[in-house]
Amino acid sequence: MRVRILVIGLLLLGLSASLPAWAQVPQKLPLPHAPGQQTLQFGAASLTITMPVPESTSPIVLTAAAPGTKPVTLTLDHQPDAREFPPSISLMEMDASNTTPEFFVSRFTSGAHCCAEVKILDVVAGQWRIVEGGLWDGEEIIPEDADGDGEQEILHGDDRFLYRYSCYACAGSPTRVFKLVQGTLADVTLSPLYRPRDEKDLPGFQQGCVNHDNGACAAYVAVASRLGRHDEAWKFMLDHYDRKSDWGLKDCALSDDKGNCLADIQYKSYPDALTAFLQQIAAAQPGNP
Ligand SMILES: [Ca+2]
Ligand SMILES: [Ca+2]
Q1: Which residues share a beta bridge with 254?
Q2: Can you name the residues that pair with 226 across neighbouring β-strands?
Q3: Which pTM value belongs to this model?
Q4: Which ligand is nearest to the CA of 194?
């Protein structure tokens, strides 16, 4: 057994030593300074960026290609008269199911607190695909290697906690982790690999709860629960939450197309509201029964 582990270890060492430079760390790619086309080559993969003339309504065009794969083209809106933000394009390794790197595009849509729009160019079954990475609170998403396996993950505060029980800037929110697997961004938050991060975040949420910030109490109970410490966190929350705040005690079970609430919910207390909210979060969480 010891020999086998040694052999696997040597194989892994050989593998990491042979990784090309572009695969080892994410690399932000420069946009062409002038209108026109520029092709960047990374090993076998290439990305061609076409920047429009500023006064035109032509889009920004990105084309990813590699030998033996079907290329894909992503078009990004360009409005000559609007204040718009350039896309941030990075080369990185996110999806281990192929031998090509991924191109990660994050662009600020502008507006208060919103949003970074993410698209990822990824090879699935021999074809480059555009993975719709969704809209995220904040200006830019910068993936990081959260578990040390050499692939970048998206880490982001759980937007569902924002404004829920206290103001935007007050409480932090629990971290969610998403991993790109064969063209799908999978929610892997509950993997034991990310427990150390939760352990690190927990004292800050607990301190916020001590200060009677109900948003921090919610994050504290949520993170402690996934670390297997729900009961002690719940008791702590009961001892420290702000009883005077009615923030988050109203909810809506059903809305029409225009956002009008058809079924109001009024909770009697913050613990009642929090119980329902954490049940909703748990029910939506992959990896929960
Ligand atoms: Ca890859
Ligand atoms: Ca990783």
Answers
A1: 263
A2: none
A3: 0.85
A4: 2
